[in-house]
Amino acid sequence: MTYRLDHVNIRTADPERLVEWYGRVLGLESGWRPPFDFPGAWLYAGEHPVIHLVGVAVTPGAAADAVRIEHFALSGDDLEGFRARLAAAGVESRERPVPGTDILQFNLRDPDGNHLHIDFRTGETG
Questions:
Q1: β-strand pairing of 115-121 with 69-75
Q2: CA 117 to CA 72: how far, in whole Å?
Q3: C-alpha 25: how far from its chain's center?
Q4: Partners of 95 in the beta sheet?
Q5: What pTM was computed for the model?
Q6: For residue 85, what is the DSSP state?
Q7: Is-contact 90 34, C-beta < 8 A?
Q8: Which residues form the VOC domain (predicted)?
Q9: Residue of 14, 8, 7 whose CA lies nearest to 67
Q10: Matching CATH number, 4-121, of 3.40.1010.10, 3.90.79.10, 3.10.180.10, 3.40.50.2000
């Protein structure tokens, strides 16, 4: 199985401000985002969306040193092998297709409760 960091997900009460900041400071550009039923934006480095902003009513942890990252994601290349690995390890996950894409996500938590998802391309647009 091959894994690579796919993107970082950040919850914010002001997505527009972060789109502007990441564009100005890192040169990231706002681009296509699946039709989720919540507000947000995807910021791209070239053709790859590296930061996913999720709009929320109040930015979590308003203190400057508080964590605002909701999850991290990895891309995998052996869907059935990963399913078997989860089953063998007794790890629960939630499978979810990403609307308008060919990506199937496995959402799970590590022993400390951190949320991560592993993304697999299925070849079928959902």
A1: parallel
A2: 7
A3: 21
A4: 106
A5: 0.73
A6: H
A7: no
A8: 4-121
A9: 8
A10: 3.10.180.10
User: For 20-48, what is each residue's pLDDT tens digit?
Assistant: 989 997 889 999 999 999 999 999 999 99
Concatenated DSSP letters for 28-82? -EEE-----SS-EEEEEETTEEEEEEEE-SS-S--STTS--EEEEEEE-S-HHHH
Is residue 115 helix, strand or coil? strand
Whether residue 59 contacts residue 11, with contact meaning beta carbons closer than 8 Å, is answered with yes
Domain ranges of the chain: 4-121
| Phi and psi angles of residue 73, each rounded to the nearest 5 degrees, phi first | -130, 145
Per residue in 41-71, pLDDT tens?
999 999 999 999 999 888 766 555 566 677 8
